[in-house]
Amino acid sequence: VQLVESGGGLVQAGGSLRLSCAASGDTVCISAMAWYRQAPGKERDFVALAPSEGTKSYALSVKGRFTISRDNAKNTVYLQMNSLKPEDTAVYYCNAECPIEGGWKDHWGQGTQVTVSS
Question: Which one of 24, 46, 104, 105 is at 20 to 30 Å from 117 when CA atoms are compared?
C-alpha cells in the first residue's frame, strides 16, 4: 500500500486546511485509516481515526475542530481542519492499517507540513 498526502501549507491562526491522502496498491486490505502528526522535537501523535466501520475517534486536542472522512470509492481519506491554532503546526502523516496473521501492518505516507502562524 502506498499513501500520498497533500493539502498542507501555511495558514493563519483561525484558518482552515483540508488534507487528503490517496491510497494505491493493495488497497483491498485496508481496514482503518488515520492521521497522525509530529511537531519538531516531539513524538508522532494520534490525531484522528476512521475505521472501516464504526465510530470515528479524535484526539482531545482536535475534537470539535477537525473532521476525518473517507471516500472508499476513491481510496482516499481526508482531514478537514478548522479553527487552526499555532500548536497544530506539525508534519501530518496518513496511516493505513492492513490485517496480517497475528496482528496488523501499518503503512505510512511521506507527510505533509502544516504551519499555523499566530
Answer: 46
